[in-house]
Amino acid sequence: MEQPNLSYIKELAGDDIAFERKFIDIIKQEFPLEVAEYMGLINKDLPRSAAETVHKLKHKFNILSMEKAYVFSVNYEEELRLGHTELHPKFTAILNHIETYLKTI
Amino acid sequence: MNCIIIDDEAAARAIVVQLCSKVPELDVIDEFSSAIDAIKFLNQQTVDLIFLDIHMPGFSGIDFVQTLKDPPKIILTTSDTNFAIAAYEYEAIVDYLVKPMTLGRFEKSIQKVKNTLSKQPKSENRESASSGAGEDLYINIDRRLIKLKFNEILLIEAKGDYIEVKTEKESYRVHNTLKKIKEKLPEGIFLQTHRSFIINFTKIIDIEDNSVLIEKNVVPISRSNRPELMRRLNLL
Question: Which residues of chain A have pLDDT under 70?
């Protein structure tokens, strides 16, 4: 699976280490909340609402330079708006992969 | 240039703050996770530029633009380029930035704003954000001008030749018309629900079929005004 990385954040931060640290903290805080929100909506069988959360999560993929995951989630967001949840397991795998990565930074 | 950032995602706001820090002319004076909070802020203070996320739950960026009476320059931040292109019909929208943003593209966008501002006649340029213009209303009561802050007003009711302005603490009877006071109120937070009533949209407690509750006041909603009220709601 595509590996998340901090290249975009580092480029944005330049030598501003404080920003880099602060930004990582924001991602570490915001990402699990969005994942929990997404899971809750899927469990309640609310795919259209879940699409809104996928919309937010896909930005995190972008920030973590995960282009393939981003493209996948653009498609998944559209599927959810149509009420289709078949891609949920694959999306969950991406989320788990990122959660594991975030624990290492 | 004083600017604010509106985005429901903290990470996205942090990126814009960081990019702004690299452009000396930009001064981020506040950031908001909801458009409603930003509207309240803009009723108190003017800004030169808004970075606005177009895709927010409930009250979208476009809804936000439509509620502003005299919008400053706006740069949309989005991943939905189709939405962004459609938004160009609004004069205030100068550019859009696709997430994730780069410094180079960001700087170009700021240059566009500067070019637009320099083309405007000076009289049309907005006053600086510190002016505080437009945050309150003076009403004439027995030859005394009383200052009311917009966010203190609950509702205004037409009563014959008078209007009654109800605030959280007091009611004021003013010899004026609903039409005239409506012109003085910011569209973002005030809404006419009936030919005799204007309400402060942010003070709504609940809504039933034909009425809205503002604190303890039940205000009627006419059939013709109901669609606009419903459009503005952050409806689940």
Answer: none
- Contact B99/A60, CB-based, under 8 Å? no
Tell me if B100 and A26 make a contact (CB, 8 A cut-off): no
Of B14, B79, B99, the CB nearest to A23: B14
Alpha carbons B164 and B177: distance in angstroms, whole number: 10
Tokens of B218: 């039940």
| Tens digits of residue pLDDT in B47-65 | 999 999 988 877 777 778 8
B113 shares its domain with B151 = no
Q: What is the pTM of this model?
A: 0.66
- Interface confidence, given as ipTM, is 0.91
Q: Residue B22: which domain range?
A: 2-131
User: Looking at beta carbons, which residues of chain B come within 8 Å of A25?
Assistant: none
Looking at the structure, do residues B102 and B142 belong to the same domain, yes or no? no
Please report, for chain A, the start and end positions of each structural domain, with discontinuous segments joined by +.
7-102
Nearest CA in chain A to B19: A12
Same domain for B143 and B103, yes or no, is: no
